[in-house]
C-alpha cells in the first residue's frame, strides 16, 4: 500500500509518499517527506496571513509533488491512492491541496482521500510505533486542543476540547505580548528553560472542574480546556515591568498543570470505556515541547498508561501523517471519497466524515 499525501491547511506546504510494507509489520515507511515552511513570508506579520499562505501553496505545491515522487523513486502509476487534507484549516490553502489531489487522482484513476487534518495527527503515532487501537489521544497544536478516544481509523470519541483558544495559539499570543519572535511556541519554551516557573501566580482555568466550562449540566464530566484567561493574565502583567524568562516559565508551568489535570480526567473516562487499553498518545505541534512531554509522561506513569509521542518532524504539520491516514483508511477497506467532496474550513473530529455528508 503506497499513498501520496498533501498537506496545505496552514503555513506548511508539504508532500509525502508513505507505504505500508506487506506482511505483519504494523508501522509504515516514509519514502519522501518534503516541506516548504512559509516562516519567512509570515514572520514580519507576527502570524499567518491566510491570503499569503494560499498563494505560497499555489506557487510551491506542483514542484514539491515532483520532488517527493523523485525522492521516493516512484511515479503516479505506483501509487494506491492520493490523500489530501480536506479540512479543517485556512480555506484558501485547503482548497489548493484538495484541488491538486483531485486532479492527480482523476488523471491517473486513483482513489482520492479527503483526510481530516486532526485525523492525521490522531493516527501519526502508528506510523512509527506499534500502537494498537484503542488509545487515548491528547491533540495539542496551534489551532486545536482535544482529548479523544481513538478506536480505529474512522472511530473517534471526544472527551473534551478547548472552549476558546487552543494551547498553541496561547503560546503564540503570549510570545507576541512578550516581544518574542514568531513562531512563538519554541521561543517561549527556550525562555522558560532559563526562568522561574513560580515567579508569577498565573491562573489555571477549569482546573479540577468537571463540567464543560459553560455550566451546561448535560456535559458534566467533559475534560474541556480554557486558555483565554491565562492569556489575559499575561497581557495584564506585561503592562508593567516583567522578566521575560520568568513569565515564560510561569506561563508554561500553568499550561502544564492544565494539560495534566484535563488528561488525568480523560484517562479515567477512557478507562471506563476501554478498561484494558493503556496507551496515551500526545500529538500536534505542542507535543514537541520537551517540558510538556516530560510532565505528561510522568502523569501517564502515575495513572498506569504508556506514553507515545511521535518524532518532532511528525508532531508539526506534515504530509506523511496525511498519507498514513490514507493508508489506514484503505487498509480498513474504507472507500475513497467522491471528487465532489468540498474542502472545509471547519471539520470537527468525531463527526460523520465529509464523504457521507452533503457538501454544504
Strand content bin: 15-25%
Number of continuous helical runs: 12
CATH topology tier name of the largest domain: Nucleotidyltransferase, domain 5
Mean pLDDT: 90
**What is the name of the CATH class of the largest domain?**
Alpha Beta
Q: How many β-strands, per DSSP?
A: 10
User: What is the N-to-C order of secondary-structure elements (H for helix, E for strand)?
Assistant: EEEHHEHEHHEEEHHHHEHEHH
Could you name the CATH homologous superfamily of the largest domain?
A: ATPase, nucleotide binding domain
The largest sheet, given as strand count, sense and whether it forms a barrel, is: 5 strands, mixed
Task: Note down, in words, how this protein is organized.
Helix content is 41%, strand content 18%. Mean pLDDT is 90; it is low at 212-219 and 356-360. The chain has 2 domains: 2-124 and 315-356, Nucleotidyltransferase, domain 5 (2-Layer Sandwich); 132-309, ATPase, nucleotide binding domain (Nucleotidyltransferase, domain 5, 2-Layer Sandwich), CATH 3.30.420.40. The chain has 360 residues and is an alpha/beta fold. The chain is globular and about 60 Å long.
Keywords:
360 residues, five-stranded mixed β-sheet, alpha/beta, 18% strand, 2 domains, Nucleotidyltransferase, domain 5, disordered C terminus, 41% helix, 10 strands
